[in-house]
Write a structure and sequence with these properties.
Chain lengths: 92, 467
């Protein structure tokens, strides 16, 4: 999938995360802030990259602000943000 | 004789302030307290160094004292609870000497037996006369009980009362008598009422918290302890208060008349007193306006000293008479040890308060906590800091199930017979890790920044820095 515009999904509530995707020229740029970075940083990174791959996203700038979301929540927020960045779905 | 002194600085000078002294403070003004900051500012202006700060608790409002760590006005801290930026600063190694943690019961015990000698005690008093008869029950900064200040006032070499509400002699309903007071200082404000007491006590509406609370109340009901004469203590946290709410319903429905509630008193416990659930409230600290109003007007709501509350020793204390207590935890380990000192990053964020005292004293010590918080599992192999030893913890209640200390076989059978979801700590731990994944270990520095003493004086654990 191609990221056409900036879009976001999620919240900054505890146990959720806010994922923002923006168009990028050629690669995946991933930035993670998390309250559990030292405990789950690698898991979060892996989940985001895997979700992007399954959606066939090859170029995007992704910003994750995590408040302790489970992997399934992170994957859902990434997917929703990517779909919202498609144009037809519109933004929030 | 005239005890009224113009300023804190002058009172400190008259009290013989010198480098290296121990100054003590109490924490009834909680996160609204101005008196510690005003006193430390005076010490810095006077150029005093190397002070040992003994405060029953420290909060975010006390962040300005970190500057006094840097310039070595304060080089050591002894406390029962250190929250906010002050705890973080100690974890970052900004205090010269190791901090010492005691419990709310151990602190007065060490003050009274002379192991913690206080040179000057500073009492923040919401109401006082010019001779030092003082109380927390009246005045614009009213906080209710002054229980934690009582051992300090009784045992310190010099006692300075700081008040913002001076009344004519004698203040009849005093908590601390003039016989223990050397100097009285009147200031504009000893604290911010918004930070001293909450205007209302809020009970959680979070369904996870409510389920935990319901399980906790059911556990007490089926423990066999809930009968006439029952005694109880609970914290002011959301789930703890909700458990009290459920317990109140059960007690009223079954017409059970308890003997007393100890605390940390909130309006909710006042309601239980007035509804006939208990005969007495024993109050070492008020948490909200309703509790302050009650302690002022209801003779069955008694102010008690920290010593009477929880000091261990052959003479006993109220904590030893408790049937059931409900307590919180940041971490619990597979030996039922509880951590309430450090957060998930290993940073100091609190302390025992009375946690380890009442866990040891009560017949049934219940820990209530969600199985995960912001993804982090509650149950770990070994807690980052042992605040309360697992041998004194009887039951852990989470929203997914209850784990009974293996030594409590009768309790386990009773709860199982009541069809409560009893399982093992290992099962609960596995459940959390299945949802969250196994957390990577956090960084632990080389240097020890705090000793945690148990209520018998022994070294319970040490807290390492995070730098």
């Amino acid at each position: 999938m191609h990221i056409e515009k900036t879009a976001a999904a999620g919240t900054l509530e505890s146990s959720d995360c806010l994922v923002t995707v923006e168009p990028s020229a050629s690669e995946i740029k991933l930035e993670i802030e998390s309250v559990v970075l030292s405990q789950y940083g690698e898991e979060i990174r892996g989940t985001v990259l895997e979700t992007l791959k399954s959606l066939h996203v090859q170029a995007a700038s992704v910003h994750v602000q995590d408040k302790g979301a489970l992997n399934c929540v992170i994957a859902a927020r990434v997917e929703a943000a990517v779909l919202r960045a498609q144009g037809e779905g519109g933004q929030e | 004789m005239n005890k009224l002194i113009a300023s804190i600085k002058e009172a400190l000078r008259l009290a013989g302030i010198r480098d290296g002294m121990t100054l003590s403070f109490h924490h009834h003004l909680r996160n609204g307290d101005h008196v510690i900051n005003m006193t430390v500012a005076a010490l810095r202006e006077m150029g005093i160094k190397d002070i040992n700060l003994s405060a029953s608790s420290l909060f975010q409002v006390h962040a300005p004292i970190i500057d006094a760590f840097e310039d070595e006005t304060i080089t050591s801290v002894e406390s029962d609870y250190i929250g906010g930026d002050v705890g973080r600063a100690i974890s970052m190694g900004r205090l010269k000497k190791k901090a010492v943690f005691r419990s709310h019961g151990h602190r007065p015990a060490d003050i009274e037996n002379g192991k913690m000698h206080i040179d000057i005690a500073i009492i923040a008093a919401p109401s006082s006369d010019a001779s030092g008869n003082c109380t927390g029950k009246y005045g614009k900064s009213a906080c209710g009980s002054l229980g934690y200040a009582m051992p300090d006032a009784r045992c310190a070499d010099r006692v300075i009362v700081v008040t913002d509400h001076l009344v004519s002699y004698p203040l009849p309903d005093f908590s601390i008598p003039e016989t223990q007071v050397d100097y009285v200082v009147q200031v504009d404000s000893i604290g911010d009422p918004a930070g001293i007491v909450s205007s209302t006590t809020k009970i959680t509406r979070d369904p996870v918290g409510l389920r935990i609370a319901a399980y906790a109340a059911q556990s007490i009901l089926h423990s066999g302890l809930l009968k006439d004469g029952f005694s109880f203590q609970t914290g002011a946290g959301g789930a703890s208060l909700a458990a009290a709410m459920y317990l109140k319903d059960i007690m009223l429905k079954q017409n059970i008349h308890g003997s007393f509630c100890m605390g940390g008193i909130t309006g909710y416990l006042v309601d239980m007193l007035n509804a006939g659930c208990f005969e007495q409230l024993m109050d070492v600290q008020c948490f909200d306006l309703k509790a302050v109003e009650s302690i002022r007007t209801n003779p069955r709501h008694r102010e008690v000293s920290a010593t009477h509350y929880a000091a261990p020793g052959p003479r006993g204390c109220i904590a030893d008479h408790l049937d059931a207590v409900i307590l919180g935890a940041t971490e619990v380990d597979l030996n039922f040890n509880v951590n309430v000192h450090t957060d998930s990053q290993g940073v100091i964020m609190g302390g025992s308060g009375g946690h380890s005292d009442v866990a040891a004293g009560a017949k049934l010590a219940i820990i209530v906590a969600p199985l995960t918080r912001a993804r982090l599992p509650l149950i770990v192999n070994r807690v980052n800091c042992i605040s309360t030893p697992g041998s004194t913890v009887d039951l852990l209640v989470t929203q997914y199930g209850l784990a009974v200390n293996p030594s409590k076989t009768e309790l386990k059978e009773r709860l199982k017979a009541a069809r409560l979801p009893v399982c093992s700590l290992e099962e609960l731990k596995a459940k959390a890790e299945e949802m969250s994944g196994i957390p990577a270990p956090i960084f632990k520095g080389e240097k020890v920044v705090a000793d945690v003493l148990y209520r018998d004086g022994g070294l319970m654990d040490q807290i390492h820095g995070v730098f």
